[in-house]
Amino acid sequence: MSALGTLSTTSTSATSSTTPPVTPPDTLDLNNIQGDILSGLPKKTQLYIFFQIVDVTKFRADLARFVPLVKTVAGVLKDRQLIKEHKKKGHKTLIPLVGVNIAFSHLGFVKLGIDDSSLGPATDPFIIGQFKDSVQNLGDAGTQTASGLVPNWDPAFVQPLHGVILISGESHETLQKKKLEIECIFGVRTIQPSIFQVTSLRGDVRPGAESGHEHFGFLDGISNPAVIGFDKDPNPGPVSVNPGVIVTGYTGDPSQATRASWAVDGSFLVFRYLFQQVPEFNDFLRKNPIAFQDLTPEEGSDLLGARLVGRWKSGAPIDLSPFKNDPVLAVDPKRNNDFKFEGEINSQFRCPFAAHVRKTNPRNDLEALPPPVGPISVQKNRIMRRGVQFGPELTKEEKKTAKTECGRGLLFACYQTSITNGFQFLQKTWANNPKFPIGQTQPEEPGLDPLIGQGVRSMSGTDPNNEEKVISGMPDFIIPRGGEYFFSPSLKGLRETLASPPVTA
Ligand code: HEM
């Protein structure tokens, strides 16, 4: 376990959270970076098409015709401006907009005969692939077979994947039209296809008032890192990250010095197919309301939910509003991410150590640690999250029986320049580690992240009356069923290294 995992050893690479930002900031090439990485493809609905390359020569030629469809960050910013103006005019309808991105796995680069050694050494999770990493490092449940421990995944993700195409848009019709266009480019359903679609998954923003909320009901997508040189006027919150934490080749990219030129202006895309046991989650809250002050049982259940996540369903952080939802705070971007678990290094009175947002971004739990252990910057462990929900709303039957009958959850996606420091670190060293974060004096173990933690599931700190009380035997609320590690190259990389030049007559 590394220093950040236990805090019992010193970190030599620690940087203070007060480290001044790089000056002058790196100039990001927004016309060369794929759009989802820095700005997020605008979406009401999104398709992930996972494919294998079956004809390399044809694929490289087809890719040259596909690249003009790829939306860059500059393109996304234009789309966002259009949406803003459309709303300003008072229109309630959605403008037809589509955004396409593409990313490749290590196996994809191998298949294409492209040397991807500048993306990581043989031990890097990207090179190893998520299938192996899931049971070796992520804690996914597996089954022992003649060929070793294999994760209990959907069969589609047990097959080798070479790449993924993302299509985002405002409606299913728009998505379907773009999908057909892309299928034509790659000759899908012809006698000479260049790709085979292994599976495709569709995610949809939830309907009505639940829009923006994940399936347990909590507002999501509030806290993503502000990027120096891109976010000019960030809202108050965690310190902005160097661009190279998210985009390869810039200050903060741990492999900045050794990236091949085609691998600059890219990012690693982690995809996880995460099922959520929503009726079981709700039932758990209902059966374990926190008895605190004069809360009704229903309010006590809401408080328990908020203490598992670290935010109320509205999005209001419990570090700022610990025992009562504050809907005004929730929607105020100047305040809703401006907290640090301040003065709480040894306390979980306001927010449990294991709460999902405290585990995945511990803020002052590391950044304000006194020497000799701290302070430790969490900057290099930040990720840019871009998830979308999949599956239907709860049925009447599921509400009645408190048992999941229909699959639903999160198509989890995030970007970073190091999977080792980013997603894998958050899952393995923080979420799955019952000892993290550990302060100097409190006797109790924080336990696992109650949402995503994999392993023997217990946590302390849910009860503000008795911070040492441990809830054990928590059911699995989130079950991983697949995923892969991809690299999302620059437009230049796609055009000049992955695609073959257009044939001239
Ligand atoms: C179905 C699975 C998941 C659900 C339902 C979920 C839900 C949430 C919610 C409700 C928030 C608070 C809203 C926000 O701050 O944006 C959040 C924040 C966050 N989640 Fe998750 N999450 C899931 C999976 C993951 C995974 C797999 C990771 C990484 C290993 C992760 C990392 C984070 C991070 C880094 C934050 C922001 C923390 C902060 O900066 O305060 N989440 N998540």
UniProtKB/TrEMBL annotation:
Coiled coil: none annotated. Residues 32-207 form the DyP dimeric alpha+beta barrel domain. GO terms for molecular function: heme binding; metal ion binding; peroxidase activity. InterPro entries: Dimeric_a/b-barrel, DyP_N, Dyp_peroxidase. PROSITE patterns: DYP_PEROXIDASE (PS51404). SUPFAM superfamilies: Dimeric alpha+beta barrel. Its cofactor is heme b. One of its GO terms (cellular component) is cytosol. Keywords: Heme, Iron, Metal-binding, Oxidoreductase, Peroxidase. It holds the Pfam family DyP_N. This is DyP dimeric alpha+beta barrel domain-containing protein. Residues 1-26 are annotated as: Disordered. Belongs to the DyP-type peroxidase family.
